[in-house]
Amino acid sequence: MDDPGTFARYATWLAGLREPDSPRPANYVPSTVRWMADGDEYLGQISVRHELTELLLTWGGHIGYSVRPSARRRGIATAALRMILPTCAELGIDPVLVTCDPDNVGSRRAIEGNGGVYEDTRSGKRRYWVPANVGAPTVADTPA
User: What CATH code is assigned to 32-135?
Assistant: First the structure.
């Protein structure tokens, strides 16, 4: 990634993953990828998978994120998850399935901090459903 041309091709490929007919590796689904940064400092990335395969329904969920080790424990994953939820709503994904390892306390806090409701543990992953339209009016909030 030291070469600007290589980086540009990679960024273009990532951006293209959101298109349903874009070329992608086998078993990949359309996805939207966002980078987490503080100025010029790369902190991590978060991805929204637009659909779920059987494996993603059990193990991976709609959202995947990673924060580089030197940037952890600063609330970055919590903020990134909060900021990507409107994208999920725009894609018609609500609620959003987010999973984590049982021993990943930081990820559990990020998910629960965004309203994630624990459903169960499958194949070694804790599964949570997170509302995408947090703060959006509900039927009960709509005046008659």
Answer: 3.40.630.30
